[in-house]
From TrEMBL:
Family matches, as PANTHER family: SEMAPHORIN (PTHR11036), SEMAPHORIN 5C, ISOFORM A (PTHR11036:SF79)
MF terms (GO), sorted A to Z: chemorepellent activity; semaphorin receptor binding
Domain Sema: 1-472
Protein name: Sema domain-containing protein
Signal sequence annotation: none
InterPro entries linked to this entry: PSI, Sema5A/B-like_TSP-1, Semap_dom, Semap_dom_sf, Semaphorin, TSP1_rpt, TSP1_rpt_sf, WD40/YVTN_repeat-like_dom_sf
Domain of life assignment: Eukaryota
UniProt keyword annotation of Glycoprotein present: yes
SMART domains: PSI (SM00423), Sema (SM00630), TSP1 (SM00209)
Length: 945
């Protein structure tokens, strides 16, 4: 079958709600990531997507109430189209919410509303809903679902849509559409609904039918059992009065669905899983299984709408008291009948009492009787399998106006295609399809949803990670002969004699004369089948073996004789099943060519020969030839060449170079310049250049300014010591000349005296040199910073007689200036080591960093202190780190315990890795082994509906 698919997420998906809205596109929700998607029907191309997550505060509140992180997302469970708009309702982290969106712009929300009673709180609830449109354009939402936080209040609701959501017809609306209100089943009454799991809902005539499985209340006196049910309500039910059955159905009825193996003690398939309805045939097909704790078994049963009506028109089953037996009761009340002209409403108290008392029908709905079968047995029965979904197509064939084709999905991910022969009502297995065979996501093969669209003649399947489209008639091309085609008994296929091919009906007309088909029995499987080659697989590397092989590689591909495989004496496939090409070929040398002529006719000369790596050329990874491709030898027989006379070449000077710097800045110095005898140099006995290669010149002959230089003062030295005191002296030398300061030598001695008294005071004398004043400025100190702005200083002293102070000289003793104002260049440091992963299990992150420092600056300088040109690139780098799954190594959670005295429930799980004496391997069994929550029974939900 033709398989198209689209992957909606690389991560796992919990649920899908797949709705085919028209003949051009399909809308579904990808619950795991809070998304709505719109895809094309033909190629499943993504047309539009809309993200609809729950708000952060709603998620936090959900988790505070004890729900798991995975459940606190927005799981979209209700999705319907009405006119040009879509109604989408989601769990919204256990705070249901609904939205209206345009059909072709699902990311645009035109209206928000509460989702209570329109959508379950939990994503794990089994629900079913439909949108019923009235004759005036109004619409009602029918839904079977839990309606409270704890999931204990199950109900079948009818909710008229707001006037803004349903297109109004104005004054033309009939009174019944104006006064119809919201209705539900009686709250917390097990006689109406007893912990139901809804699987489907259908609108037919004036009724709406709900299919579900529930705990059988009529079996409670004998133990516990689960029965499959069908419930029915009138669409025009107006509910009870003010005192009785207010806002409650008055036409609610339910009956058991019988799908069993008939015998004296029948074997029942009591767990309904899926249902589909053929409106024109007024026929239901449903899949049933045994209970989960029983041996696996599945069945498909069919029911007519008339058989359901007959059951609902029969007697009721009632129990007068909790300890009495259940009895069949005939009631004269006709609350089970509804008409489009007379709304189902009874005002008398007796009628309302009977409507409140009687809901369960006495007789079960029986499946279709099939001649040749023992009793009303299942249409299809399979042991050790569990069916999940069913879809049905009605196909016109050559000899039948219609044949029902059933697509039945099982939990192992396979889809079985059956055809139901109209004359015998026998179900024939046509083929078994594995739609997930080519899927890249094989962790969970469970099919989540399945629908057949007649206009596209295709089956649409939703799985954990993708949507798959299977063309119904693409199987025909597998049959290469007329016998194979006709024996397949596939309702979609026939033999077209004009093309000699197995094809679907030409132009969808099975009655043309040149198209042959005979669907009269189940597929003929014992006819000889000649083998046919399948497609070649992709080329791959293989080893080259055999004589002379050196472990080289070749390209190989393979095909199998399996399309079809030979069977029942059919011929085997002709030809080879393997192909080998592009084997590694190592290069080989060709023969040497003839020697060439000598490179010259006299003197030293060589001759050469060549070869090429082309015998064979290296190919497909082969080695090149080893060795040279050129060979040469001297020519020994050449005569000496005559000596040529070469004229001498005299040397010539090059141009003078640039003058060097002057040797003195003043007082007269000299500079020099050079030239070389290389333009050209003397050759073959030529003369050398005449003259000098260096030239000197005086420079800077102007007089130097007078310079002065002084030494520092010596320490004070004792000159004379008396009883009245002592005389101390100190010395320094000074010199000055109109020369460079570096040439100054210490000259004249200067003397300074002071008299120190016995009381410790000292007084300078006037002796010594009285010449004084500022000394020369010192050299500038080294800049405090190499970049980004630093400071330089220079100082001078007040020189002269001993009694002079620095304050006696005019001007400052210290001078500063800015230096190295250019910005510092930022340089990245090395990356730090990667940090530890942020989580110990699952996917987390780790990081590393680097700092922007100064190139050539102080190591202590930071980027904020200096003017640094920015470093290019990020200062921090992050990457994902994958640890083992947080759930790896754990067994499944146990069931929640009974409530303890503190109103808490506990569940536990066991680490499957390790034992009591050995800890589990690192990375396994992460997280808690025990969880607690507030008892569900203590949570109360009371919503004003």
């Amino acid at each position: 079958m033709l398989l198209c698919k689209t992957a909606v997420s690389p991560s796992s998906v919990l649920h899908y709600s797949l709705n085919i809205l028209d003949f051009s596109f399909v809308i579904f929700d990808h619950n795991r990531r809070d998304y709505l998607f719109r895809l094309s029907l033909d190629g499943l191309a993504l047309l539009e997507e809309s993200r609809w997550p729950a708000a952060d505060e709603v998620v936090r509140l959900c988790q505070d109430k004890g729900q798991s992180e995975d459940d606190c997302h927005n799981y979209i469970r209700v999705l319907h189209v009405h006119g040009e708009r879509i109604l989408a309702c989601g769990t919204n982290a256990f705070s249901p919410r609904c939205s209206w969106r345009p059909v072709e712009a699902i990311d645009v929300v035109s209206e928000w509303s509460s989702g209570v009673a329109r959508c379950p709180y939990s994503p794990h609830s089994h629900i079913s809903s439909l949108l019923s449109s009235g004759p005036t354009g109004s619409a009602d939402l029918y839904i079977g679902s839990p309606t409270d936080f704890s999931g204990q209040d199950n109900a079948i609701y009818r909710l008229p849509l707001p006037s803004s959501a349903s297109s109004s017809a104005g004054s033309s609306a009939t009174p019944q559409h104006i006064i119809k209100g919201r209705l539900r089943t009686m709250q917390y009454n097990a006689m109406w609904l007893n912990v139901p799991d809804f699987v489907g809902s259908v609108e037919a005539d004036n009724f709406v039918y709900f299919f579900f499985r529930e705990a059988a209340v009529e079996f409670s006196n004998c133990g516990k059992a689960v029965y499959s049910r069908v419930a029915r309500v009138c669409k025009n039910d107006l509910g009870g009065g003010q005192l009785m059955l207010k806002d409650t159905w008055t036409t609610f009825l339910k009956a058991r669905l019988n799908c069993s193996l008939p015998a004296e003690y029948p074997f029942y398939y009591d767990h309904i899983q899926s249902v589909t309805f053929l409106e024109e045939e007024r026929l239901f097909y449903a899949t049933f299984t045994t209970s989960e704790n029983s041996i696996a078994g599945s069945a498909v049963c069919s029911f007519t709408l008339d058989s359901m009506q007959e059951t609902f028109a029969g007697p009721f089953r009632s129990q007068s008291s909790p300890t009495s037996t259940w009895e069949s009761v005939h009631s004269t009340h006709a609350h089970s009948h509804c008409s489009s002209h007379h709304p189902a409403h009874s005002s008398s108290s007796s009628s309302l009492l009977e409507a409140e008392k009687y809901q369960l029908m006495d007789r079960a709905v029986q499946p279709i009787f099939r001649p040749g079968k023992s009793g009303n047995g299942p249409l299809i029965r399979l042991d050790l399998e569990r069916f999940s979904h069913i879809a049905v197509d009605v196909v016109a064939t050559k000899i039948h106006s219609f044949v029902h084709v059933l697509y039945v999905a099982s939990r192992d991910g396979l889809v079985r295609k059956y055809s139901v022969l109209p004359r015998t009502q026998e179900a024939c297995l046509v083929e078994i399809i594995d739609p997930l065979a080519l899927s890249s996501q094989l962790a969970d093969r469970q099919i989540k949803t399945m629908q057949f669209l007649k206009q596209q003649n295709a089956l649409y399947i939703g799985t954990e990670n993708e949507v798959i489209r299977l063309g119904a008639s693409q199987r025909c091309k597998r049959f290469t002969t007329k016998t194979q085609c006709l024996n397949s008994m596939d309702p979609y296929c026939g033999w077209q004699s004009a093309l000699e091919e197995c094809t679907p009906p030409p132009n969808k007309n099975p009655l043309v004369s040149y198209w042959q088909q005979s669907i009269t029995s189940c597929p003929i499987l014992n006819a000889p089948v000649d083998g046919g080659w399948g497609d070649w697989n992709d080329w791959s590397q293989c080893a080259h073996t055999g004589e002379g092989a050196q472990g080289d590689r070749c390209s190989c591909r393979q095909r199998h004789c399996n399309r079809p495989a030979p069977a029942h004496g059919g011929q085997r496939c002709l030809g080879h099943s393997h192909e080998v090409a592009n084997c590694t070929r190592h290069g080989g040398w060709t023969e040497w060519s003839a020697w060439s002529a000598c490179s010259q006719t006299c003197g030293l000369a060589v001759k050469t020969r060549r070869r090429s790596c082309g015998n064979p050329e290296p190919a497909f990874g082969g080695r090149l030839c080893v060795g040279p491709d050129r060979d040469e030898i001297y020519c020994p027989s050449n005569p000496p060449c005559p000596v040529k006379s070469v004229p001498p070449i005299d040397g010539q000077w090059s141009d003078w170079g640039d003058w060097s710097e002057c040797t003195a800045s003043c007082g007269g110095g000299f500079r020099s310049r050079l030239r070389r005898c290389d333009n050209p140099p003397p050759q073959h006995g030529g003369t050398d250049c005449s003259g000098c290669g260096i030239e000197y010149q005086t420079c800077n002959a102007h007089s130097c300014s007078e310079a002065k230089k002084v030494t520092t003062w010596t320490p004070w030295l004792l000159a004379n010591d008396t009883d009245l005191g002592r005389i101390e002296r100190r010395f320094r030398f000074s010199c000055k000349a109109p020369v460079d300061t570096n040439l100054l030598k210490v000259g004249t001695l200067k003397l300074e005296e002071r008299i120190c008294h016995t009381d410790g005071t000292c007084l300078r004398t006037d002796s010594g040199n009285t010449e004084g004043g500022w000394s020369e400025w010192s050299e500038w100190t080294e800049c405090s910073r190499q970049c980004g702005g630093g400071r330089q200083q220079r100082t001078r002293t007040c020189d002269g007689p001993g009694y002079l102070r620095s304050s006696d000289c005019d001007g400052p003793t210290l001078m500063e200036r800015a230096c190295n104002l250019q910005p510092c260049k930022g340089v990245w440091s090395c990356w730090t080591e990667w940090s530890v992963c942020s989580v110990t299990c699952g996917q987390g992150t780790r990081s590393r960093s680097r700092t922007c420092s100064v190139e050539g600056g102080d190591d202590s300088s930071s980027r904020n202190e200096l003017d640094i040109e920015g470093c290019v690139g990020p200062s921090e780098m992050k990457e994902y780190c994958n640890n083992p799954s947080c759930e790896q190594g754990w067994d499944a959670w146990s069931s929640w315990s009974l409530c303890d005295a503190d109103g808490m429930q506990v569940r536990r799980r066991r680490c499957m890795i390790g034992d009591l004496d050995h800890a589990p391997a690192p990375g396994l069994c992460q997280g808690r082994s025990q969880e607690e929550r507030v008892c569900i029974s203590n949570l109360e939900g009371n919503y004003d509906m």
